[in-house]
Design brief:
about 120 residues; 6 helices; about 60% helix
């Protein structure tokens, strides 16, 4: 497949899924299905409540994630990935595989550098 750099949509795609937390959020929703806010946060101890809210809102705006609010006390909110959002699954898996291979490549390169006198 040939890509024309001037018409390339990679930047558009990256603007939607790039960020420290968005891919992790998406992978959790793909793996575990619908989750409450607190469940998502517990899977990512390093994320702040503010950042998780921001990332979820951005994904919701792009129709990647859906937020369902239940009218009860205390409030109950659940997040799930949309059918459209599920189309990102092969991309996320490919990125994971490449990241794994890249990490192994870097480790091998570091070992080779240390063995050279």
């Amino acid at each position: 497949m040939k890509f024309e750099p001037d018409l390339c949509r990679v930047e558009d795609a990256l603007n939607i899924i790039v960020g420290k937390w968005k891919p992790i959020i998406l992978l959790h929703l793909l793996q575990a299905g619908t989750q409450r806010f607190s469940e998502l946060k517990s899977h990512m101890p390093g994320i702040t409540q503010k950042m998780l809210t921001k990332q979820l809102r951005e994904l919701e705006e792009e129709d990647i994630v859906v937020r369902k609010v239940y009218a009860q006390v205390p409030p109950k909110v659940e997040y799930s990935i949309t059918e459209y959002g599920r189309t990102l699954e092969p991309i996320l898996h490919a990125m994971h595989e490449w990241g794994t291979k890249h990490q192994a490549h870097r480790e091998q390169k570091e070992r080779n550098t240390k063995t050279i006198p």
